[in-house]
Structures are given as C-alpha cells and as structure tokens.
Amino acid sequence: MPIVEEARAKINLALHVTGRRADGYHDLDMLVAFADVGDSVTLATSDTDRFTIDGPMAAGLSADADNLVLRAVQGFRERIGPTEPLSVRLIKRLPVASGIGGGSADAAATLRGLCRLQGIDANDHALASLALSLGADVPMCLAGQPARVTGVGERIEPTAGQLAFGLLLVNPRVGVSTPAVFRALERRDNPGLPALPALGTIDDLSTFLAEKTRNDLEAPARAIAPVIGEVLAALGSLPGIRLSRMSGSGATCFGLFADRSSAEAAGARLEADHPNWWVAPASTTL
Asked: Which residues form the GHMP kinase N-terminal domain (predicted)?
C-alpha cells in the first residue's frame, strides 16, 4: 500500500543571524512553525525506480539527481540501508525558492516515508545526520514541530504547540536565492532571540514578535526583490492582521491572524487585488 507523507510549509516567525562559522555556514536563532498547507510525497514499492512531479508548482522543479527527494532516497540507501525499487510521486503545491522550506520539507517527508516503509524509527541518530547533510532546514522539517531552532538548524527545542492561530502566506511568484541573500547581509553577529515568554493569546504572540524579534534576512532580500516590500504593505493593510513579516530568505511573507477564518477572509480580498500572487490561508500552532 502506498505511503503518503505531508511536507508542510515551514514558517520562520523570527530569524536572527548570530554568527558565521569557519565552514561558511551561519549560526541562526529562529522561531519556527509549520502551516497546514504544503506538498505531499507518496512512496510505494515498484518493479523499478520511478520519480514523478506534478501539482500546480511542478514546472519549477526538475526530476534530476539534484532534486532533494531523490537525494533523500539515495542518502537513505547509502547510510541507513537498501530498499526495494521505489515509485515516488511529489505533488508540488508550494512555490520554489520561496523561503518556506519547500524542498527541505519534501526531503524530510521522503525520509519519514522511507522509515515507515522500512519499519525504522524516525528518531534514529543516523537519520538525523543524514537529514542535516541534505540541508540545514531538513532536521527541523523532519521533526515537523513548532520549535526554537539554533545552530545551523540542528538544535531543535519544541515549543508547547498549544497556541493556535491563522496565517496568510503570500508569494509574488518571485524566486529569491538564499545564498545571494546571505551574501548581501551587512551584519552577521546580531543578538539572538530572547527567552520565549508565556504566550496565551495571539495578542501575546504578535506583541512579542513585533517588539522583541525580527527577520535579519528581510532587508537584504528586499534589496534583491523589492516586490517583497509591496507584499508586506499589502498584508499590513488587511483587516484583522496582527503582524506581517517575511519568512526565511523570502520572497514568501506571512500575516498573523486570530484564526484561519480571518486569514481566509483577508486572503480573498488580497487575491482580488493581486490575482497573480500566490495566496494561501493556513492554520498553525506554537
């Protein structure tokens, strides 16, 4: 029977760049949530290896050996153990190179599916090492829980996950290169996140994020893709918005709302004004 794993969008509610390592990787301090929208990966045993990509964003990806799904399969076979030939299908719904961890989430979903298929514990140390080798965002996507994440992305401290709220994800259909954004950073030794306070309401969360946190990648990303500023302005004008910010290295931005229904109403208005943008209401927890 085929195994289906969801690859949910990763949202950086806050992202502080706190240093740069000798190997070129950056130390980060992030507050991360996972939305209930994303891609999906289906795996099944087959007579030969097959990999297909479809979905509304499929045109932005190629099914070659560099695809993170195929790299996850290959890495699993090399580090964890052999598998039977596999048919793997990726349904791509998230924009490519958009700051919400789409490729990393796809790789993580593939690893989780392989563990289920092979009867292996997804908390295996070798799997965590494999995830990090695929990319800094893959370990947190493998965990798939709201968390404070530090280091290059390997140190994950889950949050309570009890505060539910709505999100509106918006991408102007512009891809932004993560390496280019990091190269454009003016400062790489910024202060980290403060201790996470008790967050009982959406007002507590939005106040904390607005007053105590930031996304250090937003300024360089806006310099590369000025349309990000237009997206943030449009989000900030919507009724019910509590906070608007860019996620990751962009260009996807998000708005915080009290609940999904408020995000859906705002999203309908935004789609009417900007029909060419990708707009996705969602729910999440922290």
From this structure: 67-144
CATH code (residue 248): 3.30.70.890
Annotated binding site: 95-105
* pLDDT score, position 65: 85
Tokens coding 163: 């505060």
211 plus 84 within the same structural domain:
no
Please indicate, yes or no, whether residues 152 and 177 belong to a single structural domain of this protein: no
Give the CA distances from residue 53 to residues 41, 58, 92, 141, 176, in Å, rounded to whole numbers and listed in that order.
Answer: 9, 6, 7, 20, 22
28 touches 153 (CB < 8 A): yes
Residue type at position 15: L
The stretches in the chain having pLDDT less than 70 are none
Contact 270, 238 (CB under 8 A): yes
Residue 212 annotated to the active site: no
pLDDT for the residue numbered 188: 94
* 204 flagged as catalytic: no
Q: Which residues are annotated as a binding site for ATP?
A: 95-105
Q: What is the pLDDT of residue 70?
A: 97
Q: Which of 54, 137, 189, 212 is catalytic?
A: 137
Lookup result for tokens 């593939």: 110
